[in-house]
Amino acid sequence: MFDELRSRVVFVTGGASGIGAGIVDAFLAEGATVISADLSLDEGLKQSGERRWTVRLDVSNETAVEGVLDAITQTVGTVDVVLTAAGTSTMGFSTETTGSDWDRNLDVNAKGSFLVARGVARRLVEADLTGRIIFISSQAGKNGYRGMTAYVASKHAVLGITKTMAVELAPRGITVNAICPGIIETPMKHRERIEGGAIRGMTADEVAAEDRSQVPLGRTGTTQDVSGVALFLASDLASYMTGQGLNVTGGMTMH
Length: 255
Ligand SMILES: NC(=O)c1ccc[n+]([C@@H]2O[C@H](COP(=O)([O-])OP(=O)(O)OC[C@H]3O[C@@H](n4cnc5c(N)ncnc54)[C@H](O)[C@@H]3O)[C@@H](O)[C@H]2O)c1
Known about the structure:
The structure is a single chain. This protein has 255 residues and is an alpha/beta fold. It has one domain: NAD(P)-binding Rossmann-like Domain (Rossmann fold). It is 44% helix and 16% strand. It is built from seven helices and eight strands. Strands 3-4-2-1-5-6-7-8 form an eight-stranded mixed β-sheet, sandwiched between helices. Helix 1 crosses helix 7 (223-234) and helix 2 (62-75) packs parallel to helix 3 (99-126). The longest helix is centred in the middle third of the chain and has 28 residues, at 99-126. The structure holds nicotinamide-adenine-dinucleotide (NAD). The site of nicotinamide-adenine-dinucleotide (NAD) has 30 residues, from helix 1, helix 3 and helix 5. Nicotinamide-adenine-dinucleotide (NAD) binds next to helix 1, helix 3 and helix 5.
């Protein structure tokens, strides 16, 4: 669909599950070279297909992020497109949220996304190349959601990072945007329905029914709903867009 993506080196964090895994598959199908990094993968940068690489990475570990990006630059090439889908969440009302819940959400979702984007941006600037930074924020980066204060704060932070890096990197021809997914069927969402339902006195099935009732398009999202927008943002069609948070929510969030 997007021939220009065939020449791109694409780095996807959180690539082993859910939205990140969907993004890996979508870019591979376009002919891109894709490196999937995830906490759950094996140590060391390994080639696992003609254009597919995998590596273990904790995105909240600054030294590890730099080490993995150095290895990719030397072995695969400079990353042209980065997608930060690694993420975590904890469920708990604000009055019950602990400092460690706060740290976990902010460390992975905000700091981890920033460290990865910073590392890619530095290397693009050093090599005098243009590129695309695409964060996975959330509609929780734009609204408040009960029982998710630390997560909501971390996703608002991602949109702040998006806007700031967009302004700073625009003169270098590097665009920076975020996707704000709504309710997407992934392992994280299934766990959240169980844990979030428990603190609200609801079953996971009741939360799932409530989820569907809130989406104007009448269904929750698939990982393909998100990966299609990721492809668009990485493509030449999106070259005049930067600093945006694009809702992929079936109409649930409209601002
Ligand atoms: N599912 C949704 O409804 C939804 C909605 C909005 C935003 N998001 C965001 O999309 C992203 C992907 O979520 P998902 O639903 O696919 O979840 P998921 O749990 O299926 O996948 C997340 C992946 O991130 C990895 N990960 C977690 N911590 C990591 C770390 N420190 N370093 C590297 N990898 C790490 C996990 O191992 C996992 O493979 C997250 O940032 C999430 O906040 C999800």
